[in-house]
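Input.
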Amino acid sequence: MPAGTREHVVSWSTLALAGLTAVADIRIWTRIRSATHQFSSTSVAILIGLTVAPPEVVIVGTGIGTIITNCAYRLAPIKVFFNAAKDVLAAGAAAAVGVALPGLAPNASLVSTLGTLALCALTYAVVDQLLVSNVIALDTGTSALSRLRAQWDVRIGGVVARFLLAALGVSILRLDDLDPWLLLGVPVLGVSLHLAYANRLRAREERDAWQKLAQATDEFNAVDLDGVLHTAVARGADLFSADELEVRVEMDRVPPRLVRGGIEGISYDGDPSNAPPATGNTISVRLEGHDGGPDVGLLTLRFRGTVELSEREQYTLRTFAFALCTAIRNAAAYAELARLAEQHAHNATHDALTGLANRQRLQDEATATLERHPARGITALLMIDLDRFKEVNDTLGHAAGDQVLVEVAHRMRAAAGEDALVARLGGDEFAVLLRRLAAPAIATHRAQAILASLTKPIEVEGIPISVEASIGIATAPSRGGVGELMRRADIAMYQAKRTGSRISVYRRTHDTANIGRLILGGDLPRAMAEHEITVNFQPIVDLATGEVLATEALARWHHPDKGDLDPNQFLATVERSGILPAFAEAVLDQALLAVTEWREAGFDLPVAVNVSPRSLLDHRFPDSVAKRLRHHDLPADRLILELTESLTLSQLEVVDRVLGELRDQGIRLALDDFGTGYSSLSILPRVPVHELKIDRAFVRDMEVSPEAAAVVRSTVDLGRSLDLTVVAEGVERESQRRALWELGCAAGQGHLFARPMPADRLLAALRRGSGGRPGTLAAPLHDPGAVIRIPAARRPSGQTWDSPDEKKAAPERPA
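Output.
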């Protein structure tokens, strides 16, 4: 090629090289944590320059061009200096390789030049990447190796593309058969490759970001709140290239919580008020769901420098916050369900008042002990019953009684030992399961320790209350399992109560009565099916006239082997069995049938039927009674239901509604054995009774005991003041009858008038009457027309009854 032509080419090459250098420094921007970094393609201009200019010119020109371009971008001076120094060092390394090899000499072949140029490009890329990766690692606190590995395939492709672009430019310059004007197309091609490289990097970043988002939201499916929050911190910090990420939880049923950390791990997890202060620039978003419900807290990204999120990052942040909100809600809901399930499981095996194990857990634990480890020491059961605890409830109320039970439970648990299971079986009954004992005597020692723990009075509302207990001890039997163990301990406990010894160990000789009750319980279904349960009737008589006012139905069991059994021998067994409703209905049917027969015979007498306290706990009982009355076509006031005071009081709040329904039907209610319970007076305002029945023990002793007479007198006066009928039980002598009448008692029943008898015999006695007076069973206390001096206790204030005329105005029997 002519020299002039060559100079012309060089001049045009110089212009093309200048343009290529300008466009080669177009920047690709990326953010790593709070640091923003730029990448350019200046290597193209450097490689081409090495083939047409001296190395020192290329190095100096690279530095000047980089400084001019960075200043145009208005970068910080420190970054301008770093970028210029980096490019100069990389260009110097590439130039050194070019000088050391002959491929860049003017007379070298094109192939040799391109080979040398490839080594220069590789040297430039290695030096550039090592410098950039280490500086980024230092700036962001990350690993230099991780920075080298990031996007390695795309960056290698960029190095190859830039070398090919430089090779194209050099080929245009070196080959004479190519038009030099083609060199002007190199910058255009370079820009296109550069933009393609930048788009590829951005597409890769977006794809990686969405993959990280999908992975993070998938891990949010964990139902553990700790796992959700810790995952959010680690994944979120990586996803948004944040120096630190913080999640603050603020929602109902979950304590306030703050979790803070980054890719390296959790730095704080606890109460927000105790969190150490944090520094840096923050970007926050509320944790709220797509449903518009209340948010659950706050998500905060923290950076050491100033950061503005791109549009894609802002959308990703909102999506991440939505997913995290849903995950926190789900985890909180699961935690609440787990808590409720745990609470229900605890409630199913523990006593609500004392927190002790309940009967079910005691049975389960004892069963497991006997079945899994039958040979590991001795298993014993202590059955404990508090003595006269009912007095506390009746005197101070159930709230005070509950306080006593809680304190008793606490003392028992402390005295029984850590290896013992203390349970409350109900009411004032407790049990202690002792396992792996070395000897049976240790059970007695533990029982003594429990009794000793109860000796100190328990103070309730300023009142010291002494608590005593009876304890029965039984060791695990060879047969019968837990049921037999509990039965034996129960028998021993009742033996301790009977003997007053406070502690009793089970012995077979104490078990006879229980075996008898067990046999009776097995005979009950047959007795009901074969109508062995019958009803006798004892009349209730007007004490003044001897006239029959009513009758009381008394159940009898005509046992084929044991003969006639009275209620005291079998009623407890009936109450513990499952046939109580059928038994009560059978007795009621027989009683109402007798009333119907008496009415047809001209004797309209109500009948009193005893009611088991367990029947009063059955909400179906009032309907059952009403149905039997309709079946026999009898008015409700022909039926009197007798309640046992000493048994009813303990369940008073439960039976209130049942008693109210019975009274509303018109059924009369009587309180039996009045005076024997602990709260005879307190029960009357609560129980809607019509009658009081004085216990036979007071009637028996009233003539010899001033105390018994005082109870009878006060009961009669109480009944008169409350407009209640008073009936005395156990009247056996005429002197008792007269003394009761003089005290103001209107009616009585007992052997003086008649023993219990079948319905037909009582009807015959009514027809026969006493002294030719049908419907009476005793002569009147006074002859007709006699002058009666009313005792002072029965007179109205200021009045005496001395004359026949005054007698006529007096009632024949007390109200």
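The chain is about 55% helix and 20% strand.
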